[in-house]
TrEMBL record:
PANTHER family: O-ACYLTRANSFERASE (WSD1-LIKE) FAMILY PROTEIN, WAX ESTER SYNTHASE_DIACYLGLYCEROL ACYLTRANSFERASE 4-RELATED
Enzyme class: transferase
Residues in O-acyltransferase WSD1-like N-terminal domain copies: 28-271
GO cellular component terms listed in the entry, alphabetical order: plasma membrane
Keyword entries, A-Z: Acyltransferase, Glycerol metabolism, Lipid biosynthesis, Lipid metabolism, Transferase
Catalytic activity as recorded in UniProt: an acyl-CoA + a 1,2-diacyl-sn-glycerol = a triacyl-sn-glycerol + CoA
Ranges where the record places region Disordered: 223-245, 472-491
Feature: compositional bias, Low complexity: 473-485
Superkingdom, natural source: Bacteria
Metabolic or biological pathway: Glycerolipid metabolism; triacylglycerol biosynthesis; Lipid metabolism
GN (gene name): tgs4
Protein name: diacylglycerol O-acyltransferase
GO molecular function (one): diacylglycerol O-acyltransferase activity
Length: 491
């Protein structure tokens, strides 16, 4: 009898599966990558569900991750495996003709996709096509919006970009083939191997304890700066229930880069400063600016590190947003310094070693740890919250040239940040070509007026650009609702 073969999930990838198993009420681990196509710019736009299914099906051979499903080892005696399976694209493509609509309705549809839990008994991906969108000021008239939904166990944000670019005909796209193919163990073999897996975890536990002690010594000596352990509770940490609302603002990427160059900072620093300014204005309008500044969780890529087996190659930085600073240029400088301190901390080998026990843990142990954590309080109580108050991700989507759906060219990408039960407000920045979009998802209960926050973000970028660039160096101001008739930025 031929034994089944597959790719064992790394621990960091499997965590997304195990958390959903343990807590069905947790936000789903669904990534949603949105692309906007100008259906008027070609002679043969995709206008039917059948055409969309055919388009996707003809490109699956380029993307190994989309032709695999999870195989579970009984009782989590080993990690799940990705195994090859037949894929019927008809089961994975959703198609809807929208027609005349509103900006808020399109945002509602996109936000609802983040709440969608993907079927882990099948290849965990979907493509949602919203066709013939009309009457939305900041989209091309008759636009087609395509959203790629992927389970986070498949890949991270940059990996999702590679997959999307392959689906949209970028010949240079090279999605990950995944890890090494091995024999899938049965329950008896997995159970026999379990004690040896625990034995291999012990050195990692010892090394992690030693690394944490060293990090503490380095922080005490001033060689590194540890993140502030607590931040003040804000309205975005108090009530994260209720439906999520999507907001989107746009900034000219050349202008963002110009601000970064003029201030010797980075695009990420500029994005964080815009978020900081928006938060300061919104909380100030509510008379709720805390005495101590909130902070943001900022995922950082580990793709340049050797030996990272997981498809999710990220670590977390905790960056002070300095909303107590009124001057935007001063705020940018301080955010740059705070981010630099965090980058220095996570680049220490002790930082990686301090969490390496997760990578060495047997699947059974990880599941038990998640269950123990789930039985504890879901939210911290009191006037402080641990480490951060919101998230800000930045996933560039690359050049716009050559990306198409049918013969409709791509004109824009929109990010949708991962939901987190601890944060009622989360942010995502992404860029495609010369346009950077900053989007957010907010619980209706803590932000009933997302359009107001959009305006504050737009104003924050305009003020920062005005303070950092001469008038001739500024391109179009950032836009929320306003745009040219075809949805592009005015130059």
């Amino acid at each position: 009898m031929t034994r089944r073969r597959g790719i064992r999930l790394a621990a960091r990838d499997a965590l997304h599966v195990f958390v959903e198993d343990t807590d069905p009420e947790a936000p789903p681990s669904t990534m949603v990558s949105v692309y906007v196509f100008d259906a008027r710019a070609g002679d043969a736009p995709i206008r039917t569900r059948e055409d969309a299914v055919t388009w996707i099906g003809q490109r699956l051979h380029r993307i190994p991750a989309l032709t695999r499903r999870l195989h579970r080892v009984p009782a989590n005696l080993d990690f799940p495996f990705w195994v090859e399976t037949d894929v019927d694209p008809d089961r994975h493509v959703r198609y809807e003709t929208i027609g005349p609509t509103s900006r808020s309705e399109v945002h509602r549809l996109l936000a609802s996709m983040k709440e969608r839990r993907l079927d882990l008994s099948a290849p965990p991906w979907e493509v949602h096509v919203l066709a013939d969108i009309r009457g939305v000021d900041d989209l091309p008239d008759g636009a087609t919006v395509v959203a790629l939904l992927l389970h986070h166990s498949v890949t991270d944000g940059l990996g999702a970009v590679d997959i999307a670019r392959a689906l949209f005909d970028d010949p240079a796209a090279a999605p990950s083939p995944g890890g090494r193919v091995v024999a899938v163990p049965g329950p008896v073999r997995a159970a026999v191997s379990l004690p040896f897996r625990y034995a291999r975890m012990l050195p990692a536990l010892v090394a992690a304890r030693r690394a944490r002690r060293t990090l503490g010594d380095l922080a005490a000596s001033g060689a590194i700066t540890a993140p502030r352990p607590h931040r003040p509770r804000t309205r975005f940490d108090t009530d994260t229930n209720g439906p999520r609302q999507l907001g989107v603002v746009r900034m000219p990427l050349p202008e963002v880069r110009a601000v970064a160059r003029a201030t010797q900072t980075s695009v990420n620093d500029v994005i964080l400063t815009v978020v900081s300014g928006g938060l300061r204005s919104y909380l100030g309008c509510c008379d709720e600016i805390p005495a101590v500044s909130p902070a943001a969780v900022v995922p950082g890529s580990l793709r340049d590190r050797v030996g990272t087996e997981s498809e999710n190659k990220v670590t977390l930085l905790y960056v002070d947003l300095h909303i107590d600073r009124t001057d935007p240029r001063e705020r940018l400088r301080r955010i740059h310094e705070s981010a630099a301190l965090e980058k220095h901390r996570i680049r220490r080998p002790e930082s990686a070693a301090s969490v390496a026990a997760v990578d060495a843990a047997p699947a059974f142990d990880l599941v038990m740890s998640i269950r123990r954590a789930h039985r504890g309080p879901v939210k911290p109580r009191g006037e402080a919250v641990p480490l951060a108050n919101t998230t800000v991700t930045n996933v560039p989507r690359g050049p716009v040239e050559g990306l198409r759906f049918g013969d409709s060219p791509a004109v824009e990408a929109i990010g949708t940040p991962m939901l987190n039960r601890n944060y009622g407000l989360v942010h995502s920045a992404t860029s495609l070509g010369e346009v950077l979009t900053l989007s957010f998802l907010a619980s209706e209960s803590c932000m009933p007026d997302p359009e107001e926050y959009e305006r504050y973000l737009v104003a924050a970028f305009a003020e920062l650009s005005r303070d950092c660039l001469p008038p001739h160096g500024r391109a179009a101001a950032a836009t929320g609702r306003a745009s040219t008739s075809d949805g592009r930025l005015e130059e």
